[in-house]
Amino acid sequence: MMKTISKARYPLVLVIGVLLAFILVSCGADDEDEPAAAPAPAPAPAPAAAPAAAPAPAPAPAPAPAAPAQAPSMIKPAPAPPPPPPPAARPIIPATCYVKGEQVTSCPEASPHTWIAPTIPPGDFAVWQYEGVRPTKFYESPMSAQLVKDGKLPPLDERVPIPEDRMYSAPHDEIGVYGGVGRQTMHFVFMGELALSNFGEREADGFIWHPFVGKSWQFEDDGRLLVFTMRDGLKWSDGEDFDMEDVEFAWTDLKQPPYMGTFPVRYRDPVTGNDVKWSKIDDLNFALRFDSPVYNIMESRMNRGPDCWINQMCWYSPKHFLTQFMPEYAGQAKIDQMMKEQEFAEFNDFWNQNTYSYFNADSPCARAWCLELYDSSTTGIITRNHYFWGFDPEGNQLPYLDGVQQFRMESRPVAVFRWFAGEHDIPATAAGSLDEVPSYIQNMERGDYSVYRWPAMAGNDSGLGLAATWNEDPFLGELFRTKDFRIALALAFDRDEINEVAFNGFGVPQMWAPRPDNPFYPGDDIRDLYVERDLAKANQMLDALGLDQRDDEGFRLRPDGQRFKMEMNFNWSLLDKQMEVWVTQLRDVGIELKWNNVPNRVRQGEHYMGLASAGYEYNPWILDNTTVAPLGQNFVQAPMIGIWYLSKGKEGMPPGPDPSFLPLAPAENFPADPSGKLKHLTDIWLEGRQHPQFSPERAEYGKEIYRTHTEEMITNGMVGFSGFFRGVAVKRNNMRNVPKTHVLDHFGYMSWNDYFEDGKDNMNNPGNRSQKYRSVSFLDPDYFDAQ
Q1: For the whole prediction, is pTM greater than 0.85?
Q2: What 3-state class would DSSP assign to 489?
Q3: Out of 147, 430, 775, 777, which could bridge 153 as a Cys pair, Cβ 3.0 to 4.6 Å?
């Protein structure tokens, strides 16, 4: 008789069968499934213990339990359980760190320092704008952390904008180490780009601009409207909110007399001449509107920052600080009292001294470092801004350096000898000289420094300009306005000799043309036009101009029988050798050039020969008081026309006939512009700014500017790319993240990335030398390969 299975055991057998079937299916798929997906084997034997608890054992084994006996040969062993997750990464707490050069043991958490900087091809420019994965954890300097610990500073997240509104900067070499004071030894005190604060900042190529103080900008309405966005949570260095009230204050109160007069050309419409209009959109956005398209506002190196000198075009300023110096807010009696106490006779001087953040350490700033001390006769100190909104790719708040101190020596030679002893950490290009490069290199290992070159990229280091608006001597004035005379002078110069004698052979003899990879490059034919010396042709052209008679010494005579002479007033020691060569070379075509070592005043209309060089105009629209067109006094070939544009026709030379200026210009032209080519330069500059920076239309206008300068010989080019002016950069070997390729500049556009190897500075640690990096100069074959 068949035994019946009790109700108590039926569920047990069923469970065992289901489990075995499930295990078989699972193990059969083991080769395809991930091990972590297999069911855990440990619970399977548990049901087998249940029979021992049954009321009575069965006298004969049931058929169903036979299946488990086959398990060892049919079921693969279950994989070992996965290891437990690794413990959370322990914070990296350095045992020691540096605060202003002093080693301390109370150090905050550090970032992992695993980010790898992108490789930069030799000769290419570094890019500081970081577009990679944003950090989610943030770190601060030991200096800031100690102040937070002492209750003197809010925590990091309360000092800076929200994470999505922070600025992220990619170091040139690697993630830096906090600490130290960078030292600069010079013959002057000038903070320059170390202390600048603009809505946007340049990359090392000088062409590309990225948001700096501001978060973003965008063009709308076909370039007529430019919308700007501020960073949410931005603060001044004193901890006060930096918000739209500070922007509105600068664009309203500080655009009225006496703070602002005539708007610069850049802020006028290129067609109607009307001033730009500012408007507030909301608490984070504002706009600039023109009548016509204008695309070059954010290409300018001119002030778009907080320093509102009289007649300076500031964009924002700390209202909570500046109003104490304004009669409209403080009252005239209070201002009069302060001026008397500070011994100022003029309000302009009083205003500039008290509000300019380069001079007044009390003035709140918005940049990486803020002024701590300024004494133009001895020293300048800038110190970390704990509210700076910049971070590196690992979330470290910038800058790495706690500060920078400049020391003024009694002379430039004394400063250079200090360099030789290693007493100069950060490049200060204005203190260097191309003539001295051999001695820099000779001493660089002793001083543990390297020598970089940051040449001007405009391609016109030392051109000659003749002022067409000068007419005190009508005969000379007529020659200056005559194209053939200007070309004859160009053919008289030996530019190879000028390059070798005045620029140590480092430059390129050429007419004014930027680098060939520049979108505005006019072509090899323009670069090389009239470059080769041709004395026969020069003499022939000068003879044809009525200068065919000579005196006993071989100098040409004027039609009135007097010796033909020209004078160059110039006292810039960096170009003394070029002046000497010019005197000698013009003698070869019978022209007596007298060089007077006195200040040049061609821009004031008092002299007629001037240096027509270009430091920044690799982009013709980077300046409005520019050297590419007569829009201001910097255009030495026609400064009086430039003043007319600059003053909106109130001063300078107006268009219209003037029979005293020969050759006679058409009635609609400026008297000094018989060919109309000077006005042509202005017209295409104004037209070009109505097109986006890298558009084909803008490129053609840029090429035309350089073509006109050379074909009309408005600028008599000599040498380019030499690096003679602010182009030699000396820096200590343990100072990192300093780019080897950079346009001319005082200290570099991305100095907030500079740091000392291991955070240990040189000024506070005498005898300190790099333990990792050797000296290298831009003349070394492995210049770009050496670390």
Answers
A1: yes
A2: helix
A3: 147
